[in-house]
Amino acid sequence: MVRRSTYLYEFGPFLLDAAERLLSRDGEVVPLSPKAFDLLLAMVERYGRLIEKDDLMRLVWPDTFVEEANLSYTISMIRKALGDSGGQFIATVPKHGYRFMAEVRLERAGGAGANVSAPEPTEAPGAELEPVGGAMPLDSQFYIVRPVDEQFRLAIARRDSIVLVKGARQVGKTSLLARGLQQAREAGSRIILTDLQMLNEADLASVETLFLALGELIAYRLDLNARPREVWDPLHSPNFNFERYLQRHALAEDSAQIVWGVDEVDRLFSRPFANEVFGLFRSWHNARSLDPEGPWRRLTLAMAYATEAHLFITDLNQSPFNVGTRLKLEDFTPEQVADLNRRYGALLRTDDEIRRYFGLVGGNPYLAQRGLSEMAQRGLALAELEARAASNDGPFGDHLRRMLASLAQDQTLLQAMIAVISCGPCPSAESFYRLHSAGLIAGDSANNARPRCHLYAAYLKEHLS
């Protein structure tokens, strides 16, 4: 865990001294166990941000495997010490983690009393560290802008009907989508962001339950008075009802441009009603050409996904994935990894170290950030990271174990991956596309498939041989 020895943190009536490892309230010491102090410090340093449970456990117990119950218990002890019964200081974000809610004031230790916007890490000279994984904060200093960011911005600014963002898992699609939507919001557009991971099985039971759920989310995001169930006509099809709801209530004549961002579209591909849903989306694109002054000119649909759509959509004339603006989000280049390294304080000190690091993690954005964050937090040299990288208890261990468990659930993909790490081709085009979408392999076709990075190759060879 990164220590900051020159700052005091004030929140409410409390003062947290990182150097002396003391928490006090109105001058009286508040007793905390060492791990409770570490956990409180980790949250205070990142106040206002959502911190995932896995990231908190990795920060506080970096070299130990602990159960989630340990984290929950320690959180409860901190809340008790703070007298926090109503979430004034620590908010629980269900299924994700925690957020420190109180405003934090930073002061230099030693009586200087100077307010600062952010402390400088003593063990990593780069910017303040942040949890790795999931969507990055909009103000993150570690977000690497790639050419596709500008392409996405321009497509939204042009008010294109459909904008498609395709990329492998953990390549940064959600973060790109969030930034593009924020730019559109600042330009005056009304924004709807729908993460299909939010939907449960009941929402996905049929095309009608899906459209009702989407309609409710749209009504909430746009603060519409009419709710879908109030205007749904059982005599008409779900497609008709959903389209009419959008036209009459979201795309009213006096409405501003609407940008609807849909993330994790992959969840719909395998559903039996997928063709109906995507056929409707395609019809809105067609309607723009037939009626340029119609309501659909005020809607831009931006969809992010990883899986090859053609594996699931049989009628290309009903597919929105072969029209509109198609963007592909690629892995980092060596230059972009070098840029990320500079933002972490140039932990990789030579061009040779940057080349070695790029060889280890490839351009995988998640791995590139995760490794540098681990080096910063634990004070690791590159050689130490390399030595432990492919071990189950190493800095990437939890990620690698999840990858292996996911493969074990699908014997077809497991056998295809074994073929790839044995320097053979993928057995089929479908297995190639699925492994590529999952972010496990690179290459342009089944014949030249290869593991996405040396880390994956080394770990999978050890565990699948």
* Overall shape: globular
- Find the CATH topology of the largest domain: Rossmann fold
* CATH architecture field of the largest domain: 3-Layer(aba) Sandwich
> How many DSSP-defined strands?
15
The average pLDDT is 87
The N- and C-terminal alpha carbons lie at a distance of 35 Å
Residue share in β-strands:
5-15%
How many individual domains?
3
Task: List low-pLDDT spans.
Answer: 1-5, 112-127
CATH class division of the largest domain: Alpha Beta
> Main beta sheet: strand number and arrangement?
5 strands, antiparallel
Radius of gyration (CA) equals 25 Å
| Helical residue percent band | 40-55%
Main sheet: which strands, in order across? Answer: 4-3-2-1-8
Q: So how many helices?
A: 18
Summarize the structure.
The protein is an alpha/beta fold. The chain has 18 helices and 15 strands.
Task: Give a quick set of tags describing it.
15 strands, 18 helices, alpha/beta, Arc Repressor Mutant, subunit A, Rossmann fold, 3 domains, five-stranded parallel beta sheet, about 475 residues
